[in-house]
Write a structure and sequence with these properties.
heterodimer; A: Double Stranded RNA Binding Domain; 2 domains; 15 helices; 4 strands; B: alpha+beta; Glutaredoxin; 4-stranded mixed β-sheet; 3 helices; RNA-binding (chain A)
């Protein structure tokens, strides 16, 4: 397999301080020359505007450079990263590769709501990190549990790479939050603009402009298949990307002191930080390091998938499953019972297909015991896991053995 | 929809994949004048550098606290802090206290009655009175 050249296409997401040389880099350097700018704020504004439209001319370097003070900047300056003890401690605590500089880690800690300038916030890194995380998590789930129903896969994806988990991880990494973002703040703190306490988040921001057609029809049935097509990896409606015309105007937001970005919750900001760290590791240390980081920090967490099922009619589903797989129709039989006429009876019921016992359950009534038995049988089917699973990304390693196709199941039962 | 997924959050198992040291910050307070800080000042001068180099994951702060006994405070990831007064202690004894704070989880001290706790289900299963060797009355 030919290996992708990381350095060539990742330079747009890397910070301008790390690499030098290309034309792209000159652009980034120009637009990011916030600290060395010769112009006043209004002139800087015009420069940034012109940058989006036409080719920029390199800035003249022989004029004096008045420095911005720290208090005027929306996020800490780059030089502060080397002086922050918190940042160095965080770098060491996560055992991040030494190729990932402290400056990039500082950038990972700046949310879009704190600094709208894409050259200084973690937006690009977190987009990349999110894609990596969901890619690794989904290939692990699909290859390890090939028969999982889609709804359970969505829930498991949410458990591995969802914002709640990432927020918990950032807390467990010991990341502290800055009260208010600013240039004078320690760069080792997570910087974001906080939502005012007491804000009702659902009322404040109704989700409009999603990728789903007829999104205003709240009473319409939402099928799981449409969720695969329209929604994000967690099965939630996703905001549509703005059209390219709007994007090109906003690639380099101006730094005129007014931050119009909406405030975010700590959960969103922490999740973006964790994703950005994964993206930064991928860019600076390569694919293997990113995958190892995912395995050590994400995959090693405990998740019991057998507790993520919620069956509405298990007996019916089991009957449909047996019909699909050409098994004999399931029959429930009492295995043992006690106290049928008493206040607390117990029935142990097994579900049999021919001579094979598919599942067994105990309950206080016959119906309850039968449905428990059917749930046990369905879980036994859905939670099948082949031995010695290889995921597709294992092929990216050097000297990988030839790929053998993994087991792919028909999918869940359609009732 | 025949089956629905229940959303949950994965729980951390520190040390299974990656290990995160729970002590995130150590504060050293000393007094330049008082005699009870003599060992602490010597520790700060001669041993703290090496300790900080060996443990880069701990943020270290040193600050004077005039007319008070010397104190070491450990701040932990779970949000708690532990303080140890090191008055009149020798540098070696202070080093032991620093190691104690470094290796601590930050939880309250409690007596461990069962040496092994697990979040995984038992492999053997739970004994059931309704299976095997049933006696008919």
């Amino acid at each position: 397999m030919k290996r992708l050249q990381l350095q060539r296409w990742s330079s747009s997401a890397l910070s301008s301080r790390v690499r030098t040389g290309s034309r792209l880099h000159r652009q980034i350097y120009y637009s990011g020359a916030r600290f060395q700018s010769t112009t006043s704020n209004s002139l800087q504004f015009e420069d940034d505007q012109s940058l989006a439209g036409q080719q920029p001319t390199p800035p003249s370097t022989n004029s004096p450079f008045p420095q911005f003070t720290k208090h005027q900047l929306p996020s800490p300056p780059i030089q502060a990263a080397r002086e922050s003890a918190k940042l160095a401690a965080l770098h060491a605590r996560l055992y991040l590769p030494s190729r990932l500089p402290l400056e990039t880690l500082a950038r990972c800690l700046v949310d879009t709501s704190a600094d709208p300038n894409f050259q200084f916030n973690n937006n690009s890194l977190s987009v990349l990190g999110h894609d990596l995380l969901t890619n690794y998590a989904s290939e692990h789930l699909v290859c390890t549990y090939p028969r999982l129903p889609l709804t359970v896969i969505f829930a498991a994806m949410y458990a591995y790479a969802g914002p709640k988990t990432l927020h918990a991880m950032s807390r467990e990494w010991g990341v502290e939050h800055a009260a208010v973002p600013g240039g004078e703040v320690d760069p080792g703190l997570l910087q974001f603009k906080r939502v005012a306490p007491g804000t009702n988040l659902k009322e404040a921001r109704p989700l409009v402009g999603t990728t789903r057609p007829n999104e205003d029809q709240t009473t319409w049935r939402k099928s799981i298949t449409s969720s695969v097509v329209y929604d994000n990896v967690f099965g939630d409606p996703e905001l549509a990307a703005p059209p390219p015309a709007e994007l090109s105007d906003n690639v380099y937001p101006t730094n005129d002191g007014i931050n119009s970005e909406p405030p975010v919750t700590a959960e969103v900001a922490s999740a973006n930080f964790v994703r950005a760290v994964v993206g930064a590791i991928y860019l600076h240390a390569g694919r293997q390091a990113a995958k190892r980081f995912f395995e050590q920090h994400f995959l090693s967490r405990q998740l019991d998938i057998s507790k993520m099922f919620n069956f509405s009619q298990p007996a019916r589903d089991l009957a449909r499953l047996c019909a699909r797989e050409n098994y004999e129709a399931p029959v429930a039989k009492i295995i043992s019972e006690t106290g049928r006429r008493s206040r607390s009876p117990v029935f142990v019921v097994g579900v049999f297909s021919g001579r094979d016992k598919l599942g067994e359950g105990a309950g206080a009534s016959l119906v309850e015991a039968r449905s428990r038995a059917a749930v046990a049988a369905l879980k036994g089917w859905y939670l099948y896991s082949p031995l010695e699973v290889r995921v597709p990304s294992a092929m990216e390693e050097d000297g990988a053995a030839p790929w053998k196709p993994v087991y792919v199941d028909l999918g869940e039962v359609i009732v | 929809m025949p089956v629905q997924g229940i959303r949950s959050v994965t729980s951390a198992r520190n040390g299974v994949g990656a290990f995160i040291l729970q002590c995130k910050r150590l504060d050293f307070h000393y007094c330049d004048w008082a005699g009870s800080s003599r060992g602490m000042v010597s520790f700060l001068k001669h041993q703290l550098n090496a300790f900080a180099k060996q443990n880069p994951q701990i943020e270290i702060r040193v600050s004077p606290r005039p007319h008070k006994h010397p104190v070491i405070k450990g701040h932990y990831i779970n949000g708690r802090e532990k303080a140890v007064c090191v008055r009149n202690l020798e540098p070696e004894q202070i080093f032991q206290k620093v190691n104690l704070l470094k290796q601590n989880s930050g939880e309250k001290n409690k007596r461990t009655k069962k040496p092994v706790t697990s979040i995984n289900d038992s492999v053997r299963g739970i004994w059931s009175p309704y299976h095997g060797g049933l006696k008919s009355v």
